[in-house]
Design goal:
The protein has a single domain, classed as Rossmann fold. The mean pLDDT is 97. By secondary structure, it is of the alpha/beta class. Helix 2 runs antiparallel to helix 8. The protein is 37% helix and 17% strand. Helix 6 links the parallel strand 5 and strand 6. Strands 3-2-1-4-5-6 form a six-stranded parallel sheet, with helices on both faces. Bound molecules: adenosine-5'-triphosphate and nicotinate mononucleotide.
Length: 192
């Protein structure tokens, strides 16, 4: 059975931290592929600085152009919004009955997991691979949970918020995002 890691995110915009996580999960944890699932709207986040989902998808695609086992997914574009992960997972299981899906997330999302729709069902039916994030230590209830694996990987300070603020302040974002993504942000005048 092929095993796919689903890395859900707003990707507003995608940054080098996301790419390091996706590449680590795709190549060091026994997965066949990682799919970056672009969420139109995270139910727990205000839309505020969220740019349109097509531009976010385009930046994801530019960023993974040369990655063999990392793909983007638009599955949530055609589902109701905001994007509840459990609904997407059920939809994906129906569409790909012979694929084993696992979730990928940063440890910040563990702190809000109990606010997610049907989180007990997610934990019952799926395995979650968690990448640690500075300032978000995983609580023992999660590190000891049979459905959760916390990777022992270097911490990264990257965030999309930092990038959006930097662009707004006219700062250079080279290497925080791939060159192709930086050019896209500049050419379209995003986040100004
Ligand atoms: N530096 C990081 N370390 C670990 N996980 C991260 C990091 N940045 C993002 N993630 C994870 O990537 C996924 C998508 O995150 P998201 O697109 O919201 O990026 P973000 O940098 O957290 O954005 P924002 O600053 O807008 O909240 C989430 O599971 C998040 O936990
Ligand atoms: O299903 C939920 O209730 C739920 C609550 C909060 C976040 N999520 C999803 O978690 C993913 C991470 O969100 P973000 O904004 O941190 O990239 C994104 O796909 C959201 O739709 C899902």
């Amino acid at each position: 059975m092929r095993k796919i890691g689903l890395f859900f995110g707003s990707f507003n915009p995608i940054h080098t931290g996301h790419l390091i996580i996706a590449n680590y999960m795709a190549n060091y944890t026994g997965l066949d592929e990682v799919w970056l699932v672009v969420s139109p709207h995270n139910p727990l986040k205000k839309k505020g600085s969220l740019i349109n989902m097509y531009d976010r998808l385009e930046m994801v695609n530019l960023a993974i152009e040369r990655a063999e086992n990392i793909r983007s997914s638009t599955i949530e574009f055609s589902l109701p919004q905001p994007s509840y992960t459990i609904d997407t997972l059920i939809h994906l299981r129906e569409k790909y009955p012979t694929t084993d899906f696992v979730l990928i997330m940063g440890s910040d999302n563990l702190q809000s997991l109990k606010k997610w729709k049907n989180y007990e069902i997610i934990l019952r039916d799926y395995h979650i691979q968690v990448y640690p994030r500075p300032d978000y230590p995983a609580a023992p209830e999660w590190t000891q949970h049979p459905s959760i694996t916390l990777t022992d990987t270097p911490l990264m300070e990257f965030s999309s918020t930092f990038i959006r603020n930097a662009v707004k302040n006219g700062k250079n974002i080279r290497y925080f995002v791939p060159d192709s993504v930086m050019a896209f942000i500049e050419n379209k005048g995003l986040y100004r």
